Amino acid sequence: MKSVSVQWFEIPVQDMDRAISFYQEVFECELSKQVIDDFQMAWFPFDPEQGGASGSLVYHQEFYEISPKAGVLVYFGVDDCAVELSKVEAAGGKVEIPKRMIAPDIGYMGVIIDSEGNRVAFHSNR
Q1: What phi, psi does 39 have (nearest 5°)?
Q2: CA-closest candidate to residue 22, choices 117, 92, 97, 109
Q3: Which residue intervals of 61-117 are DSSP H helices?
Q4: In what order do the strands lie in the sheet with 39-43?
Q5: Per residue in 27-47, pLDDT tens?
Q6: Residue 26: CA atoms inside 13 Å, Cβ hemisphere, count?
Q7: How far apart are CA 75 and CA 39, in angstroms?
């Protein structure tokens, strides 16, 4: 069977500096801000040896729209989603679904609205 996997994702933002601050605080990491023509991007740190996909925050006045309820839902893999969920409100976001078990063999999830109004999720095995 052919495998289909996520290679890259983009999260639209209204205020790049505010969004960078939010994600850096929640994940305790540094994002790399880039300006490519009329696109502003902030790349999440990525180590290809750890696997998974990477992505960025992105701002463009015409090509991106923010929605807290519609569209694709990106799940960030973390060690324990309770840790990141506990930082969301102080960073300027809102917890929509607190940590809950999906199934014993699948793990846990939580859904937030980020500082820009996007719906994103966390997944962990514990």
Answers
A1: -100, 135
A2: 92
A3: 81-91
A4: 8-12, 54-59, 39-43, 32-36
A5: 999 999 999 999 999 999 999
A6: 30
A7: 24
DSSP H or E stretch at residue 103: strand 94-103
Location of structure tokens 């999720």: 121
Task: Quick: pLDDT tens for 54-99.
Answer: 999 999 999 998 988 888 899 999 999 999 999 999 999 999 999 9
CA distance 110 to 100: 7
Tokens 């607190």, located at residue: 98
Give me the residue label for tokens 């109004």: 117
Tokens describing residue 78: 């973390």
